[in-house]
């Protein structure tokens, strides 16, 4: 019987991540804790640093336990939604996942009443709406919350808190090797280099995955370059470490594609994104495949593109660095608020004879950004990509 249980656990771990190094023992420990709480609505918080594997651990548990509940819901990246939207989104997602239909907001609590559910809320920053609904659920309901904010779990009196364990040196080297060499150990002659890179990743699976993927099939000179870069980065600055994955691209087109996905297309369907970018002269099919291979984006449920919040933060940081702070020198007005700021700055000053061209370009760019945000694409009308807009803006 123990062998059967362990084989099922292994399957759940494999479904959560391609290389489940160091994950099995944590899954077993958490599932054991949950199974001891079968009569109450049980809330358990998973905490840890950004990139430490909280979501992966929650996914493995969810995959293992979901068949034994009347309903289930896994809601990712709640922290990326605005405070004014996520409560409504949470209720609607729960109703959609559990009841498989659209329910008027005022009836959602009644329709969920008495159901024994498994709910995972990923990257949580607020729990008010959940607590309003919690009284509706049947005993035996399990609510798993992943967050970086331990104080949030104390404020809302979560029943149990589990701190994700960072990888030890051997686990770090193995995970890095799977991504960099596609095997469990470094290639001959690369062991010292791999150990050095793994040590700088500080046991964080996300850093090991992204940096390891960027070093796949790279020469020793490039490994040494990455080691030198890592040695200059502050110990806990994961954003700068993740930037190594971005800087590892061979050409500017690949960097532009990552930034476009980061800023406009997270959560959008892969076919939708590919169609738009292909229509703009970008080889989106191979480009998106490369981003997936580099562990910079993932394809999630319903074939939608996803990105780790820290990777998205890194991409936004890069975009701001590229655009700079001076209006006339911006090479990429990548965010809507940047365009809005640009318009505001132009309209408050007196226009000289040369300013009208800049105004027309900013107005045109803002219209295109609005089309991206609202999805208003008219059949037969060619919509230019962000890269095309950038070229037009700089002419």
Structural topology:
Blueprint: H1 2-16, H2 24-35, E1 42-47, H3 54-65, E2 71-75, H4 86-99, H5 108-112, E3 117-121, H6 128-134, E4 142-147, H7 150-155, E5 160-163, H8 169-181, H9 191-200, H10 205-214, H11 220-231, H12 238-247, H13 252-265, H14 270-279, H15 284-293, E6 298-299, E7 305-306, H16 309-323, H17 336-347, H18 355-374, H19 386-394
Parallel strand pairs: 1-4, 1-5, 2-3, 3-4
Antiparallel strand pairs: 6-7
Structure description:
The protein has three domains: 2-163, P-loop containing nucleotide triphosphate hydrolases (Rossmann fold); 169-247; 252-394, no CATH class. Helices cover 55% and strands 8% of the residues. It has helices at 2-16, 24-35, 54-65, 86-99, 108-112, 128-134, 150-155, 169-181, 191-200, 205-214, 220-231, 238-247, 252-265, 270-279, 284-293, 309-323, 336-347, 355-374, 386-394, and strands at 42-47, 71-75, 117-121, 142-147, 160-163, 298-299, 305-306. It has a five-stranded parallel beta sheet, with helices on both faces. It has a two-stranded antiparallel ribbon with strand order 6-7. Helix 6 (128-134) links the parallel strand 3 (117-121) and strand 4 (142-147).
